[in-house]
From TrEMBL:
It comes from Albula goreensis. Coiled coil: none annotated. The lineage of its organism: Eukaryota, Metazoa, Chordata, Craniata, Vertebrata. Pfam families: TMTC_DUF1736. This is DUF1736 domain-containing protein. Residues 354-365 have a biased composition (Polar residues).
Length: 390
């Protein structure tokens, strides 16, 4: 709890100077001229209009459906009118809350100690968050992040209580599925803050398969074909099903039509050249990764020609693209491989099947708890003799 308190306090202090700031850029359209914030407008209109106050089914709609964020703006308007400080206060408070949750997640993944603290401090102070926290319309990102982390933490708790985990107990079985339902509801909430929030479902599945159970890709295939560990299969299946439901409802609600962006909003998508579109879209993740590593060039608007299109193979930025994907692949191969924990005591070495204990405790299966829930044999090496038990 100390790490969370320190990091969230730093996040709060760093952005206190924004409380005296005015509205800027997109704040005018989203707040000052948005009819959905006015008391005479039925509040239910929020659930039929896009982020900018235009009917979702209108041909000119941006299709950005973020009703929970708009609802928070309406509450701000009801309490303080168009006084900017109240809007900024909510943004800063949300950022502190997100930092608290992120530090808690870091502690779950990295264990107690300085690494979780450093991760939380980096998150609290990273310059790339400036636009989202200091700009009022950035609340959509901060709110989505809040629900995203809550959903992921609930799912992690579900994994710990699910039958087959060391910490699981039959009395905790109902709680196990309550945590899963909470995770699914919060994932929907994250999407209703901002569209990208739905990706927490994929992140949760990745956590379950490759971090909590520490499986290899081959073991995931075996898991599906041989129907091993039905609890894990059920959880991941529910995540996938819920994601499909959310996306289907989202598409239906906006009139079964994709958004139509102008050339200035998304020049890459509007380019007639397939080569230009491909090279540019492949480069964008590399550019965003560089902003995380070296945020020396930030912008409040990346539309128009803020990022010039890649039109030829000879564009030197293609080297960044190659380096990014090669590096990402190498990290995936190293990070998602079958990690084993080797314990040495009294001249004996035991290898538990991919189950790693951290800081003296773990939620994963151990050889003593291995049963039909195990995804492979448990091997032990004693006095130079290898034995395998299924």
């Amino acid at each position: 709890m100390i790490e969370e308190l320190v990091c969230s306090s730093v996040a709060l202090v760093l952005y206190l100077n924004t409380l005296g700031a005015d509205f800027c850029y997109d704040d005018s359209r989203v707040i000052k001229t948005n009819q959905d914030l006015l008391p005479e407008t039925p509040w239910t209109n929020i659930f039929y209009d896009d982020f900018w106050g235009t009917l979702l089914t209108h041909s000119g709609s941006h299709k950005s459906y973020r009703p929970l964020c708009t609802l928070s703006f309406r509450l701000n308007h009801a309490l303080g009118g168009l006084e900017p400080w109240g809007y900024h206060l909510v943004n800063v408070t949300l950022h502190a809350a997100v930092t608290w949750l992120f530090t808690g997640l870091s502690r779950l993944l990295l264990g107690e100690g300085r690494w979780a603290l450093l991760a939380g401090l980096l998150f609290a102070s990273h310059p790339v968050h400036t636009e989202a926290v200091a700009g009022v319309v950035g609340r959509a990102d901060v709110g989505a992040g809040l629900f995203f982390l809550l959903s992921l933490l609930c799912y992690a708790r579900h994994c710990a209580l699910r039958p087959g985990s060391v910490s699981a107990h039959w009395l905790g079985l109902p709680q196990c599925w309550v945590w899963l339902m909470a995770s699914l509801v919060l994932a929907a909430g994250s999407m209703l803050w901002k569209e990208q929030g739905v990706t927490v479902l994929a992140v949760s599945a990745t956590y379950d398969l490759f971090i909590f159970h520490r499986l290899r890709f081959r073991q995931v295939v075996d898991l599906i074909h041989k129907r091993k560990n039905l609890g894990l299969l059920l959880s991941v299946s529910l995540l996938a099903t819920w994601g499909a439901v959310l996306l289907a409802v989202r598409l239906y609600w906006m009139g079964n039509k994709p958004p139509s962006f102008s050339n200035s909003d998304n020049p890459a998508a509007d380019s007639p050249s397939f080569l230009t579109r491909t090279l540019t879209f492949l480069y964008l993740p590399a550019a965003n990764m560089w902003l995380l590593l070296c945020p020396d060039t930030l912008s409040f608007d990346w539309s128009m020609d803020a990022l010039p299109l890649l039109r030829t193979y000879t564009d030197w930025r293609n080297l960044h693209t190659i380096a990014f994907y090669v590096g990402f692949l190498l990290l995936a191969l190293v990070g998602l491989r079958d990690l084993t924990k080797v314990r040495e005591s009294n001249g004996k070495v035991h290898v538990s099947n991919g189950k790693l204990n951290t800081n003296g405790h773990s939620n994963h299966l151990t050889p003593e708890h291995a049963s039909s829930e195990s995804l492979g044999p448990v091997k032990s090496v004693e006095n130079g003799t290898k034995t395998t038990a299924c």
